[in-house]
Amino acid sequence: MIVSLSRQAPVRRAKRRGRQWVSIIALLILSLVYLAPLLFAVIVSFKSQLEVSVSPLALPERLQIENYTSVFAKMNYWRSLLNTLGITFAVAVCVTLIAPLAAYPLARISNRSTRLIYQIFAAGLVIPFFAAMVPLYGLMKTLGLVNTYPGVILIYVALNLPLAVFFYTSFIQTVPRELEEAAALDGCSPLATFWFILLPLLRPVTGTLVMFVAMSVWNDFLLPLVFLFRAEARTIMVSVYSFVGEYGFDPTSLFPAVILASLPMLVLFAFLSRQIVAGITAGAVKG
Amino acid sequence: MTWKPSTIAFFVLPALAVYGLFVIYPTFSGLLLSLTDSKGVGQGQFIGLANYARMLEDSQVRTALLNTVIYTVLVTFFQNALGLGLAVWLGNMPELRNSLRVVFLLPSMLSMLVVGFIWSYLFSPLGGPINEMLQALGLGSLKRVWLGDPGIALFSIVGVHVWMYLGHSTAIFLAGYLGLPSELRDSAAIDGATGWVRFWRVEWPLLAPATTVAVTLTLLGSSKTFELPFVLTRGGPGDATMLSSLTVFQNAFAGERFGYATAIALVTLVGVVIISNVVSSALRRREQLI
Asked: Does the beta carbon of A8 lie under 8 angstroms from any beta carbon of chain B?
């Protein structure tokens, strides 16, 4: 019995390792195929117009940097980059300030009104933007906020609040109350306790949330298309869209444009992929 | 700590005011707007339920609502089925797990607009890379007019959506899978449960919390898709890829039928709320069985 076991074990192990290798190679091929559309976009962005039409699948003979430089100017890249950055920054600051402020009593006090307010915020998680878009347009017109930065910032803040309040409330519920109670004994007001004790503890949630806000604002298209369409205020995605509308679907200008527009988020992802994964998977494991 | 009602109000009010004014108020004022023939600014005439009656006659809207259901169901099913399979595969590959999880998340970092533009080129019928590639592989008979054929255009867009967000479902299922207690798997192995049996009897039921999160997020996310059909097909050919969000947009901002567009949006919203509630409460009940 013992003898036969020791004879078979190496064979089984070798078989298992062989299967593991097949699996690894298959996965690597699969991920290459998965990324092929993106690789393709990058390759085409460096080709000349002639190469694109004659040999669509071949590599470029020479990197056409001009593709990028000409797109740069035509889509007013820096201006729309700054517009988007400014809006993203303002939204992130507002959300990470007023959402934890609201979440604090919602997490600490359980009575009928706090539960109702929490429910109202939670309802926002299922309301898609396009459902509120048309009446919202009327409201923004009345308030004179169509085509203004504050108008778009306020809408983004409002749209991001449900998720933010939800995140902060569930996080604060896991923070022990002792610190706050000690602060209260020392005569700290709730606002001072919030600012000096709680807010620093919330930094991990705030970090995750800022990333989500940045991604949702940066990659958004429908909202700025409807509410911020004047040329000099355009966000990056509206810039790409109007650039393509003006210069057509020529791949040698389309792909540099979409790559330039996506680059900041890809850089962010390169540096913070672990935090982004943590944010996406929050709630997947029963806590 | 003692909380005075005025303190609570002070804390909650800023968020509640912004959210109430720019999300809740428009959603509910939409109810009134949908009962008018408003063409933009101004009140419009009260016309009762005429907008809702008109939807029943409007074949574009009926198609859009049906397409939205088909689209949401297909994306939710395929994104999560493939995501689950990939997650289990990656879960057993500790060497590759972290780097490939990032690879599969890459497309979801892009804007849907950008993804739409990239695929509009890949799908192009003449000289488009997909058809060229099929030709080069000797599969020329599989060449299609991917976005121009009313029979397959919607499925092409579903494919793009699944490609874009597959990494999300994979990441969620993978987190759930890695969170399974390892003793459980060992004891299942001792009981002789291996491979498929072990997966379906032991692991799949334990992935219930991850399933709830992944399915609910996919459902809500895919039901509001706008940019993909907007860029790829404009809802065509005919109305083959018309979705609710797109018909709302077109009725409001191209047709200046604000009242009507709001009625369509509200019907969609009610549908989404009902379906997502039914699905997520069913999934949560499943979690209780663990």
From this structure: no
